[in-house]
Design goal:
By secondary structure, the chain is an alpha/beta fold. The protein has 15 helices and 13 strands. The protein has two domains: 4-206, 3-Layer(aba) Sandwich (Rossmann fold); 217-361, 3-Layer(aba) Sandwich (Rossmann fold), CATH 3.40.50. It has a seven-stranded parallel β-sheet, with helices on both faces. Strands 8-13-12-9-11-10 form a six-stranded parallel β-sheet, with helices on both faces. Helix 2 packs parallel to helix 3 (51-65) and helix 3 (51-65) crosses helix 4 (82-95). The longest helix is centred in the first third of the chain and has 15 residues, at 51-65.
């Protein structure tokens, strides 16, 4: 099957051909015809399956076929992070370059005035994070009353990040007769509940079993003591000549600290997380893509939207306490039909998290102990603190109020 067989117009086929794509992926084969038909869709697809093109291509065609005379906002794509919004915006720009449709990418961390100026000039498509979109709604700088198509991309991550109330506020603003497309890598009870309330008689698409990493990603566990993780990571990168590595930590502070340590070890590295400015995050990502830095250390939230077709290595420096996050992390490699590897450095404190991940995957992940980095059997497990540090308990004090 070719993209032409899916019913796409010549302007889109020309852009696809210039990008070097000839055969649609499974999710594109299923999604594109269904979106063109105008119905609602509930799609389960892992990252790296081509889902972004699966909805941007038919979305562009549906807007173009109505040939608008005025640039009103007729399509809204919501994403959980700035990086993913930028990635989707780039996809719309590339595939829509031969169509006279205007696009605005809206997220926080940058000057809102330039976004307002672009919105006032008129746009057909908005790609936005929920918080910044609501900022524009409150300032009355955006009109969503003519939206015909709504896309929730990586809906599971949006709920994980606490955007459900923002999404509900946005849904109340939108016209009721729109087409809704919901894409999610995993289906929690919250996602199912959202789908029931949002979608009308949806067509379902599932290109892989949910919560299962792509078969193109080889996985391995390297047991190691917590205090020797950074040393082992430097050894693996250097001894195995890894030239492009995405490393995950649990915390922003941990990302900074590890990046500094790797740089000291002679491995060019940069950190990317929520406390970094948008310009710093963009520069770090571009330097990583271009090979200026060998290692990008990221937190889960910041890594959403990192889309590199040939990223060969992902390392879980600390495995996540939420099993689904493991799937999202290793899904950064093994994309677009390329093979990838994912290794996890696991200390004794993380064995419970590892068990939860393997339960989700319904299989054991192979283990390989690196010679010279064997775990010390005398070390006992300690609970790993998650979230904000709780204030120390204070003794109760009685106060007698003078009247």
């Amino acid at each position: 099957m070719t993209f032409k067989d899916l019913g796409l117009i010549d302007e889109l086929l020309r852009a696809i051909n210039e990008e070097g794509y000839t055969t649609p992926t499974p999710v594109q084969k299923q999604a594109i015809p269904l979106v063109l038909q105008g119905g609602d869709i509930l799609a389960g697809a892992q990252t790296g399956t081509g889902k972004t093109a699966g909805f941007t291509l038919p979305l562009l065609q549906r807007l173009w076929e109505k040939n608008p005379k005025n640039h009103a906002v007729r399509a809204l794509i919501l994403t959980p992070t700035r990086e993913l919004a930028a990635q989707v915006g780039e996809s719309v720009r590339i595939y829509g370059k031969y169509l006279p449709l205007k696009t605005a990418v809206i997220f926080g961390g940058v000057n809102i005035e330039s976004q307002i100026k672009k919105l006032r000039a008129g746009v057909d498509i908005i790609i936005a994070t929920p918080g910044r979109l609501l900022d524009h709604v409150s300032q009355k700088t955006v009109d969503l009353s003519k939206v015909e198509i709504l896309v929730l991309d990586e809906a599971d991550r949006m709920l994980d990040m606490g955007f459900i109330n923002d999404i509900r506020k946005i849904l109340k603003i939108l016209p009721s007769g729109r087409q809704n497309l919901l894409f999610s890598a995993t289906f929690s009870n919250e996602i199912k509940d959202l789908a029931e309330k949002l979608l009308k008689s949806p067509q379902s698409i599932e290109v892989e079993r949910h919560n299962t990493p792509t078969e193109l990603v080889s996985q391995v566990i390297h047991p190691v003591d917590s205090k020797r993780k950074s040393e082992l990571l430097s050894y693996l990168i250097s001894s195995q000549n890894w030239n492009q590595v995405l490393v995950f930590t649990r915390t922003k502070h941990g990302a900074n600290k590890l990046s500094e340590k790797l740089t000291i070890d002679g491995i060019p590295s940069a950190a990317i997380h929520g406390n970094k400015s948008q310009s710093a995050r963009t520069k770090a990502l571009e330097d990583f893509k271009r090979g200026k830095v060998q290692v990008l250390v990221a937190t889960d939230i910041a890594a959403r939207g990192i889309d590199i077709d040939h990223l060969p290595h992902v390392v879980n420096y600390e495995i996540p306490n939420v099993p689904e996050d493991y799937v999202h992390r290793i899904g950064r490699t093994g994309r677009a039909g390329n093979e990838g590897s994912a290794c996890s450095l696991v200390c004794i404190d993380e064995h419970k998290y590892l068990s939860d991940i393997e339960r989700l995957l319904k299989r054991k992940i192979p283990t390989s102990i690196i010679a010279g980095y064997e775990p010390d059997p005398s070390i006992k497990a300690q609970p790993i603190f998650q979230g904000r540090r709780q204030p120390a308990k204070r003794p109760k004090v009685s106060f007698r109020v003078k009247r």
